[in-house]
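S2.1 Query sequence (GNAT family N-acetyltransferase)
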Amino acid sequence: MDHTATLALFDRQMRCEARSDGPGSRVEHTGPVVRLTGPAHAWNGILWSGLDEAGADAVIAEQIRHFTAHGRAFEWKVYGHDRPADLPQRLLAAGFAAEEQETLMVADAAALPTAVELPDGVELVPVTDAAGVRLVTEVHDRAFGGDSSHIGRQLLDRLANTPDTVAAVLAMAGDEPVSAARLELYPGTDFAGLWGGGTVEPWRGKGLYRALVAFRTRIAVERGHRFVQVDAADTSRPILARLGFAALTTTTPYVYAPEGL
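Output structure tokens follow.
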């Protein structure tokens, strides 16, 4: 893989030319910014920015005014190669809070293993309805902590309105959901995204994460996507590297939450 060319392709297709990811959401190109504005439970934020030092603070202030006027908290997704170099410091000064840094990892989908190997007594079940979505949110709540209900609402929206853009899967040990993940498909692009990948504590270290990667990669290949990408936490990065993913850059969410939200 040519890392520089792949990152440039990712920036163009997934950031500069991004499309709406659900009902009620719209992508807007405003000056040097590409942003996504949608319902409160959806992802709202800045997908791409081409800022210079002279105008960066004014553009940041403009985005705060836009999302605040809509009553939305929002995320400015900063990649390690974004400019100006001090963009993170400018966002912090404007009232954003930084979340944990992750690593953008990409692999050639056709080169990844797609054989699904599961522990005894576990089966993978596609998620197609509200009952399955509830189990996905239950797994995420247990695996990651916090409240994952917004993810459930987003998933329901997409299954109902744009089912060709998402695939979700549960690992079931009998009647117990023990792991869950989703695949986000971007028709017309070279990329498919692996998201979620949460496993409850007693079932970690048994190969479920790798099995869910293989299952989703197979779907991505069948749908004609060349690459699969992950925003990888530190815990996932070694597993993905062993499977054949390459680290292209870092990505850090900077979140702005107006008072009262």
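The first strand starts at residue 26 and ends at 30. The CA atoms of residues 140 and 146 lie 8 Å apart.
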